[in-house]
Every structure is written in structure tokens, then in C-alpha cells.
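Sharing a chain and its predicted structure for anyone who wants a worked example. Both blocks are below, sequence first, C-alpha cells second.
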Amino acid sequence: MAETRRGRPRSFDREAALEQALLTFWEHGYDATSVTDLTTSLGIGAPSLYAAFGDKRKLFDEVVRRYQDTHGAFTARALAEEPTARAAIGRILREAATEYTDPEHARGCLIISAAQNTIPASAEVADRLRTIRRANRDVLRDRIQADVDAGLLPDDTDAAALATFFATTIQGMSQQARDGASRADLMAVATTALSVWR
């Protein structure tokens, strides 16, 4: 006699559901996204969501990791593949202009915009995203300083100031994209920002 299979298989693809959750948080932000919003966008019930991902905060943590590995990975790729800090940062700015205005998803950057105006109960979420943004700025600083140390940039180059300037530019590009700036608008910002680095 054949063995009867017990239990019900998951009625959704976990990776596809995680991507949909990412898009939902990206569009609305952490606080404005409710569990109902998530279950509706994923097409599953709350028990299935909790079974697959835990609570809303744990799901958001997974979303952030997925974003860094997918939509936001252009920064790490540029830093790894370009021969100089200037080339890497120029590529980051141009790819940000493209990614932040891609019609396939929400505009701007999830890491920059998802925890704006959070309530006190969400302070840890805001802190985590702030930490990621600071780490991204520090990576730029370290790459610029490495070029200084290698003699590719003048000894008096202020790596920290340049990194802060470009991090600020990238954050501003994200907000401009959310406000409706076009890809061409942001490409012009990228070109102008690079012109300060002669």
C-alpha cells in the first residue's frame, strides 16, 4: 500500500514572495507597510507569512539583505571591478541614476527611504538602515584613501570629505528620483558631482 503524504505543501514560492515583500516595503516604507499589505501583495494568509518569515521585522531584515544582494549590489560591483576610486564612484553614480528610476520597481533606494519618519517603536529599523548607509560611506572613504596611499591621488586628498560628498549626492539622487526626477536629470547630477573631483 502506498504511503499517504501528510501535510500541505507551501502554496507559494518563498523567493518570489520575498521579492514581492521587498517591492512592497520599497514602495511604502517600513512603518506604512502593514501585515495586511504584505499578505495581500504576497497572496498568502497571515499564518503562512509568519511560518515562512517570522514577524514583520524579521521579514524586513531579510528584505534588506536581498536588496543589498540584488537591486543595491551595483555599488559593491563597481568598487570591486573598477581600477580606481574615481572610476568606481563615477560608475556608482551613473548606475544609481539608472536603478533609482527603473520603472520595474519603486523609485529611489530602499536603504535610504524605507525608514524615513519612523515611529519610536521602529527606532531599531531606522538605526539599522542608518548603520548601513554609514558603512557604505566608509567603504567609499577607504577606497579613496587606498588610492591616496598608492599615489594615484594627491597626498592632501581629503578622503573622508569626498566620501561624505558622494554619499550625500547618492542620497539626494534617491530623493530626487522619488520626487519624479528623470534618469537624464540624475545622469546630469552624476556628471556635475564628478566634476568637483579633478
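Comments welcome. Residues 123-149 form the longest helix (27 residues).
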